[in-house]
Amino acid sequence: MSRLVVVSNRVAPIRQGKATAGGLAVGLHDALRQSGGIWFGWNGEVSKRPETACETIGNITYVTLDLSKPDYDQYYRGFSNATLWPVFHYRIDLARYCRKEYEGYRRVNAMLAEKLKPLLRPDDILWVHDYHLIPFAAACRQLGIGNRIGFFLHIPFPAPEVLTAIPPHEDLFRSFCYYDLIGFQTETDRLAFQDYISREAGGRVEADGNLSAYGQSFCAGVYPIGVMPDEIRRQAESYRGRRPIIGLTTEGRRRKTLISVDRLDYSKGLVERFQAYERFLEHFPEHRHNVEFIQIAPTSRSDVKTYQAIRKQLETVAGHVNGRLSDLDWTPLHYLNKSLDRRTLIGLFRTANVGLVTPLRDGMNLVAKEYVAAQNPADPGVLVLSRFAGAARELSAALIVNPYDCLGMAEALDRALRMPLEERKERYEDMMQALRAADLNAWRDTFLRDLRSFGRHRVVTARR
Ligand code: GDG
């Protein structure tokens, strides 16, 4: 089997027995272990004299490098996270564009391709991840790298009307076409991509699904990312760690709990969620004192302005809800602005009566899937899920909500907390079936199968 080379913005070597690694890292790590390979990308460090480091663990070689301060500012903090991320999540209002940052983005992609080139063998296949690396294949082609290169977009692909808000959208999109296979989370994303090809790029969408634009032929497919449901279930069953005292009354009676876990990001709908929870307690006062909401939201991208703003806003809303509604023996909302280890998180999912996953826009949302997988089949909790999460396509047995509908979300919470056991079980079984049918291995294996079977190697020179 040809060697696999995974390229992603961030790389963190996984050492055996490290329980904190997330599902995605573990899934990719397994694929690399099977065929042997390289995992290449940024190590998260910013330094004056960027260095490349190489570490081999088993048959995986981790090749990581630092970024210089200008590269970090322009490529990562700038174009990736202050332009692409908001626009791809339909938040044009939060996006900014700076030509210098776009140049930095292209420059870092070219630099990464150059650093990778000497490590490649002719029959390696490359799997590139996410929006930081859209022009990576074009940069490789420019260096004469003819290997098969696939790309997976973890976030939504926006409608052309939205994408075209990025001033160099055409240049960006042109560079996208040098991949052999482009994978999306949902059919909606794939259709939006095809729409751009035919309406903006003057390209063609063939009946057999093959695409062409700017003189390149390539394919696009839908590969919804999954979790390992039975592994999560086993972890949840065997969890013996700290039990939260949240949800306990002073007499030791257990209250019902709701749980949410998100990176602190404006796309996750945290403010709207807190407001809906407040509305729920106002509208259904019988739940007061009987329910507690735990929100885990570790800070992310804290040096991007929009993230500082959402953090402040959230602190204000959380303070407002608790200030207004708390009592001497009851705190309705527990907002933890920090990360917990994965085992504790899975343990918390298991005990919570409701999983509340209400992003305004999300490529997939793994938390929704992890929450379901962690449930006790004999007495499962209820997933309340935003229609704007990619996961809503597969998890249609969740209570589907519109996060912009404050009262609608409040009503869904009331319904979730009152749902009879039989209905909860039915919905849970339905969702577990969906999780097993499209787990993390299936995501990885189908993508790599399709990439491996794509056409012949090619040597082309990309134009800027
Ligand atoms: C992107 C796309 C897509 C969260 N807090 C803690 C923690 N987590 C873990 C969760 C989950 C992962 O991080 C988050 O994944 P999501 O899918 O929810 O969201 P993004 O980070 O935005 O991921 C998304 C995903 O890529 C994969 O394709 O689904 O749409 O935006 O696994 O459990 N883990 C630990 N402590 C925390 O505090 N240990």
Give a topology summary.
Blueprint: E1 4-10, H1 23-35, E2 37-46, E3 52-57, E4 60-67, H2 69-88, H3 99-116, E5 125-129, H4 136-142, E6 148-152, H5 160-163, H6 169-176, E7 181-184, H7 187-199, E8 204-205, E9 210-213, E10 216-222, H8 229-237, E11 256-261, H9 270-283, E12 291-296, H10 305-325, E13 333-336, H11 342-351, E14 354-357, H12 366-373, E15 382-386, E16 399-401, H13 406-418, H14 421-437, H15 440-452
Parallel strand pairs: 1-2, 1-5, 2-4, 5-6, 6-7, 7-10, 11-12, 11-14, 12-13, 14-15, 15-16
Antiparallel strand pairs: 3-4, 8-9, 9-10
Helix pairs in contact: 1-15, 2-3, 3-4, 8-11, 8-12, 9-10, 9-13
GDP-alpha-D-glucose binds next to helix 1, helix 11 and helix 12.
What does this structure look like?
It is built from 15 helices and 16 strands. The longest helix has 21 residues, at 305-325. The protein is of the alpha/beta class. The protein has helices at 23-35, 69-88, 99-116, 136-142, 160-163, 169-176, 187-199, 229-237, 270-283, 305-325, 342-351, 366-373, 406-418, 421-437, 440-452, and strands at 4-10, 37-46, 52-57, 60-67, 125-129, 148-152, 181-184, 204-205, 210-213, 216-222, 256-261, 291-296, 333-336, 354-357, 382-386, 399-401. It is globular, with a radius of gyration of 23 Å. Residues 20, 22-24, 154-155, 225, 261, 263, 296, 298, 339-342, 345, 362-367, 370 line the site of GDP-alpha-D-glucose. GDP-alpha-D-glucose binds at residues 20, 22-24, 154-155, 225, 261, 263, 296, 298, 339-342, 345, 362-367, 370.
